TrEMBL record:
GO MF entries: metalloendopeptidase activity
Protein name per its UniProtKB record: intramembrane prenyl-peptidase Rce1
Main subcellular location of this protein, as a coarse class: endoplasmic reticulum
Catalytic activity: Hydrolyzes the peptide bond -P2-(S-farnesyl or geranylgeranyl)C-P1'-P2'-P3'-COOH where P1' and P2' are amino acids with aliphatic sidechains and P3' is any C-terminal residue
Organismal lineage: Eukaryota, Viridiplantae, Streptophyta, Embryophyta, Tracheophyta
Transmembrane segments: 68-87, 108-128, 148-170, 221-252, 273-294, 300-319, 324-341
Species per Swiss-Prot/TrEMBL record: Hibiscus trionum
Length: 366
């Protein structure tokens, strides 16, 4: 159909005398601009059908830090964490500690200093756009929301791998109950009466503070809360970070080589076997802790799992003449593998996964 151009005669007709049939609507913009038509044809899906929602903050941070810079920063934080433990004697030239408690107190202070320094370095390297306190803490996974989920679900998952150990403890408790021959209520009462004295002795034990407080807190803060955001923002994939970050965590435990070597009559073979077993265990646990941090977006999840593992030690695989321990270990491992992904879904730990603040939305990975 040919469109007639308006003539001078048409322009002289008053607007009130023009009939509705003669009025012409303006042509749509996509007739005059075909490219705009292509841009306007965007498929719109309901919110329930979208697979992932990209956080704009994540897009700003992704790729803004190069991979070499992220790796070098992680290596520097690892070396600094280990070096500060020996700073009092090697750098500050302080006299040797007079007791084991003083020696450990010095190490506690050094670990705290290195952790704070790592947090500051990480904050300077990450392209953080907001200065809000909650926003900054959210980058490191330090959050107060969904705290019971962040504690209960990872602890339950971790306890499944220790099903054999828990079965062994239960069997020993039953044997003790059979030998005691006292009513159950009397045993519970005596346990409650001894609880305050036991807690006071535990609180004064420096090894308790090292294994269950200082070491888990500082290590998770440095090797998870600081390193994982750096590696993710450097362009590494989530699965790559899960296996790369524990490497730095394992290498940080090589400082125990000299102590183990001296405690085992300077036997290099025994020391190497012990250190190799320790490195393998820290590598496996470091991968699991990194997985928890990335999936949940909270620091509490790997922190409480770390405390539980330090308290339990190595899992018990089998015990002679106690087959139930091996059965419990195998069953617990199978249940752990079955529930690992369902119990670490990001939506369990975040109100809205499309706007969560954990590393600017990196918990959206599937």
């Amino acid at each position: 159909m040919e469109v007639r151009k308006p003539s001078d005669k048409d322009s002289r007709i008053p607007p009130d005398q023009i009939s509705p049939s003669k009025t012409r609507k303006p042509l749509p913009s996509h007739f005059t601009n075909p490219e705009k038509k292509l841009k306007s044809k965007k498929l719109k899906f309901p919110a329930s059908q979208t697979t992932t929602t990209v956080n704009p903050n994540m897009e700003e941070m992704k790729g803004s830090l190069s991979k070499p810079v992220a790796v070098i920063a992680c290596i520097a934080m690892t070396l600094f964490y280990v070096a500060t433990l020996y700073a009092p004697t090697l750098i500050l030239r302080l006299p040797p500690p007079q007791s084991f408690n003083i020696f450990m107190t010095r190490r506690f202070i050094c670990a705290a200093v290195s952790s704070v320094a790592s947090v500051i370095i990480c904050a300077l390297l990450l392209p953080i756009r907001s200065g809000e306190t909650s926003y900054l803490f959210g980058v490191y996974g330090i959050r107060s929301d969904h705290i019971w989920q962040a504690v209960f679900f990872p602890l339950f998952l971790t306890s499944l791998t220790y099903a054999g150990s828990l079965m062994l403890l239960a069997s020993k408790w039953m044997e003790h109950r059979n030998q005691d021959r006292r009513p159950l209520l009397c045993c519970i009462k005596s346990t409650l009466l001894r609880f305050p004295s036991q807690m006071s002795s535990v609180a004064s034990d420096v090894l308790f503070w090292r294994n269950l407080v200082v070491a888990p807190l500082t290590e998770e803060l440095v090797f998870r809360a600081c390193m994982i955001p750096l590696l993710l923002c450097g362009g590494f994939k989530a699965y790559d970070v899960i296996f790369l970050c524990p490497t730095f965590f394992s290498l940080a435990h090589l400082n125990h080589m000299a102590e183990i070597y001296s405690h085992h009559n300077y036997s290099l073979r025994e020391a190497s076997m012990i250190v190799g077993l320790q490195l393998g265990y820290t590598l496996v646990f470091g991968s699991y802790a990194s997985f928890l941090f990335i999936r949940t977006g909270t620091l509490a999840s790997p922190l409480f799992a770390h405390v539980f593992c330090n308290y339990m030690g190595l899992p018990v695989l089998f015990v002679q003449r106690k087959g139930l321990v091996s059965v419990a270990f195998v069953a617990g491992t199978l249940y752990f593998a079955w529930l690992l992904f369902p119990l670490t879904r990001p939506d369990l730990y975040n109100e809205r996964t499309n706007s969560c603040r954990c590393w600017q939305g990196y918990c959206l990975w599937n």
